[in-house]
Amino acid sequence: MARAIFWVALALTPATLVLHYVFDVSGTAGFVVSAAALAPLAFTIGEATENVAEHTGPGIGGFLNASFGNAPELIIALFAVGKGLPNVVRGSLVGSVVSTALLVLGGAMVAGGTGRLDRRSLMLQVAMVFAATALFLVPSIPGWHGDPERHELYVLTVPVAVVLVVAYLGLTFFNLRRHATAERTQPDADAWSLPRGLVALAAATAATAFVSEILVKSLDAFGNAIGLSQFFVAAVIVAIVGNAAEQGGAIVIARRGNPSLGAEIAISSSSQIAVFVTPAIALLSVLVGPALPLAFAPVEIAALGGAAVVVAIAVADGRSRRWEGVVLLALYAAVVVVFGVVGDRR
After folding, report:
1. Model confidence, pTM
2. What is the dihedral of CA 66, 71, 76, 79, to 10 degrees?
3. Which phi and psi (to 5°) does residue 140 adopt?
4. What pLDDT is stored for residue 30 in this prediction?
5. Theoretical Cys-Cys bridge with 103: which of 81, 99, 153, 326, CB 3.0 to 4.6 Å?
């Protein structure tokens, strides 16, 4: 089965690239084709991560999956910055944090059932998301009045972004050292070698980046065709498809009996987007287009903070339970409804 999906991924990815770059297929058709190509790529990344985690343990394995899986998010966001779409960028970043925290963790808990979680690692990363949300208030509150793209807000954004990036790198180094010491594992006999797993992970992530960019280019036409607001498309659809790799991988891995790694992937991804990817995009934005202030709307701040609080409650006891996953999925559905009602009027 795994080999069949791998070959499907190899077939769909070049087919998507040819349809887009040779035959100029875009719009709704481009969205459908590229979305179909992302699914087997997500499985491939999940398969590679699970094999890498056989050598590194769930903590480092989750970090690697989040890092490789969030590379497309960074590329997509910088592409949107260059196109002059700041609201799309901020909406997709908020949606990515919320979807990985609620949708992916909830799906992993439902798929994996009862199991133990690394409470210390998960709570540290959730705390980082909450801290990032608090710091985002510095440029966001002034942005609720007047032009949210004005230069003064970017001036406020720069020190916030620098503090978050430095804090993320420091805490990640500490966390990975702890995992490296505590998670000495003996890989199964049939596990891939570490070099093979890392090469497969990198190759699948690179393919995901190209396919994701094509999908994002077709999202505007797709949204117009079905009557969705730009904010909803960014915060829900772009967020989900841009992170399809780690989302699918986390749920597949949890279903295979490893809920700890599934949860680690979900929360690592959410934390990495909030504390590293988002400020990094703000700092890099001046190189590719207009400077991007991290001036989030009230509904976006509320979604970030609310997701962090709910996830902290869910993982506080260090146990994964299926009913908790159902609650997280229901809460994500509620957030989606709110995003749909608020729309571009946020």
Report:
1. 0.82
2. 150
3. -75, -45
4. 86
5. 99
